[in-house]
Design goal:
Helices cover 20% and strands 29% of the residues. The chain is α+β, with helices and mostly antiparallel strands. The strands form eight sheets. Strands 7, 8, 9, 10, 11, 12 and 26 form a seven-stranded antiparallel sheet that branches. A six-stranded mixed sheet has the order 14-15-16-20-21-25, with helices on both faces. Helix 6 packs parallel to helix 7.
Amino acid sequence: MKKFFLSLLCLGFVVTSCNNDDDTIIEEEIENPEEEIAEVDIEVQNFFWQTLNLYYFWQGDVPDLADDRFDTQTAYETYLTENDDPVALLENKLLFSEDRFTFYSDNYTELVNSSAGVSKSNGLQFGLGRISGTDDLFGFVEYIVKNSDASNQDIKRGDLFIGVDGQTITVDNYIELLFGDNDTYALNMAEIVDGGISPSDKKVTLTKSEGLIEDPIHVSNIITSGDKKIGYLMYNQFVSGSEDALNAIFADFLSQGVNEMVLDLRYNPGGRGSTAAVLASLIKGTNTSDLLYKTVYNAKLQAQFESSSTENYFVSTTGTFDGNSDAPLNTLNLNTVYIIATESSASASELVMVGLAPYMNVIHIGGTTVGKNQGSVLFVDDPEGGNVYDPERVENINPNVQWGLQPIISQVENSAGFSDYIDGLVPDIELDEDVTNLGVLGNADEPLFARAIQEINGVSGKSNFEVLIPANVVSSSKLHDPRNAVLLLNNSVPVSKIPITEKK
């Protein structure tokens, strides 16, 4: 299907008149084209509809995606033609009203890079909170990405800012100021004065660059506390290809006798489901007959798939995705794990917590998580490949449609059948980050880590963790973009046996 043509018939006609001087009849022909053809390109609309009709989790709840929506191919093409704005069609007619996490781009490579941890960034990861009683926002630095522009500037975790290029940050302008097209901006810094946030004279100029690759393993450390050897890992995105590096960290944990584990996912918005399986197995064990989670699809797809295609088990190796060596896992075989998770933790982070819960004690410290129990896959216009993105089939992608669509295609549940956490996972031990005392990540006195250590040692009532200014996150450098809060199903997700073809 290429283009649909609307034809408007415009007839040429003859005007007859008389010249008053000589009564000569003059015939004057007014020439118009016999037919004006308005081309309406419907390839993108067709790609959206075909993909969602087949794979979308809520396909049965969207009337315009019903299998019997169109009686004929002509009716289908007329519908796509009348909806000549692909984005308006998608947003207004094809997506389910409760869908929070489907996203798209007119350049699919942006979505490929996003899932690989590659972005245009200055390396500053920050949260945004509201100044009490106002619409003004303040930013607080969560961490700095290694080898980024921010890593070379005078800015660090715990620093505060309230403006960009002299403009106060508010709920109305923060997207334009911090996430707009301005690659370079100057932050107007702030400080704590008498328990409040006040502007300072300091400015920090930052510049975004293309292709910044963030190492998802931000900090790993081992703390000795009494008779406990506590392994600490801060992991900030479930990136395929990082499994061998994770395995090396756990090998070090094993060699040094680690017998307790604190997994810090407080800033981790999600990522690859297969990577989550590796991390969960490194913590709990490698019994490959133990079910980690199941994926539930729409009724049309669910009827096609064998259980082996929807059940995801614990694993025993790092796998071979994206250069991993398929090495045996250095598992800790723990009975209890302490996980730091907050309102910035989503998707694959929540999956690890939920997936481990039937097999071991999962002690959640921090705040209520995002609540994303759904999985997605990147689709491109490659009908012969089921429209599922495959890096080995990029030459088969329709050159006229370079869009990428990443819709919700499944819901996940753990081995006990639990999937009801759309409102987030509530912590066992609630403790907000305090912007007046964020601490150093990985240090034993960083408040959330310190609280976990207390719980491990059974002395939780002996220290005071009073929070003066809680980091109640309105948005953040990660969560503002829904592409970051995804559970990416494996590239080997089952491709439907129903062909992607024209409707009729």
